[in-house]
Write the structure tokens for this entry.
Amino acid sequence: MLDIQAIRKDFPILHQEVNGQPLVYLDNAASSQKPVQVIDAIADYYRKDNANVHRGVHRLSQRATDAYEASREKVRNFLNAKSDKEIVFVRGATEAINLIAQSFVRPQLNAGDEILISHMEHHANIVPWQMLCEQAGATLKVIPMTLEGELDLSTFDELLTDKTKILAVGHVSNALGTVNPIKEMIAKAHVKDIPVLIDGAQAVPHMTVDLQDLDCDFYVFSGHKMFAPTGIGALYGKQDLLEEMPPWQGGGDMILSVSFEHTQYNELPYKFEAGTPHIAGAIGLGAAIDYMQGLGISNLAKHEHDLLVAATAKISAMDGVRIIGTAKEKASVLSFMIEGVHPHDVGTIFDQQGVAIRTGHHCAQPVMQFFGIPATARASFAFYNTMEEVDALVLGIKKVQELFK
């Protein structure tokens, strides 16, 4: 059992008032808060070990390098990847998807080829593929979705063709909370030798991810959604695929030797880490993984599930409120509409009550278009949230309804 009150003491930002009310932070799908263990790890690096990595023989550089590479091993263990060489540090999921688009897919993409995504993708898993299709004259295909907010896989086998160069799909929808059946989708794509990229930005904070079990070719995530700093994330890629890919960016540290006639690139994973990396961010990411694993990922997932179930039940029972996304398998996210009230007004009134939720299209405009709505209000839970904060969410909805009677 988790001691939520003890856990909350690790998150200093939670202990403040907003507009004279205790802060209730329910915008975790956008960005999660950071425990003191992560904050201290970052501060300790800048106080004691601030130096570049891989390049210095002096003690500070060696300590910084050791901490940076230790975080890479923590990511490998966290995802159950086979090798540290399969873990590339990036700014986040967005950069990782663009890297795969340009380095892996672009060299083999021709006019008439196809890229397959789903209707519920974040813009970060739509726009890079659109750009790629424009460059090569390829076609972007889309897996449809149902009114419940689940992928409609009735035509999935037909959408996987000899022209499909990659399947790129989110593990968990940031707008709906839907947990997609990615293991089944990966297996079907591999039957036709189609590589698969999974956007795991909304999954890794809320569930155990075992890459050797999933067998996807690429997996990406962002640290700031899993209690780590902004501007850091990781790309997992199968080693044989990464070995074949050309570098995406050129510069320092991604080389072994440089002359005006020829450059020899570095080995994995450094081939894809040009320039001075976000060293403090990587160390903070490692500290966040330590923190989550110390509490037990399954324990965190159960608590968040209990919060989501309770919130869903209470809001479903309210008149004039519509939940957007009612998939059987969900994680963390509860999107809703209040009859007669624009979501932006909902968010403003919630803020006056000290409750932070997200309102808008959540970088998933095709999802909003599918449901015929401009936006939703979205509450998203983390393990430091409480049942009392679920009640605050319900009271916030009632306050909105009272003001807009």
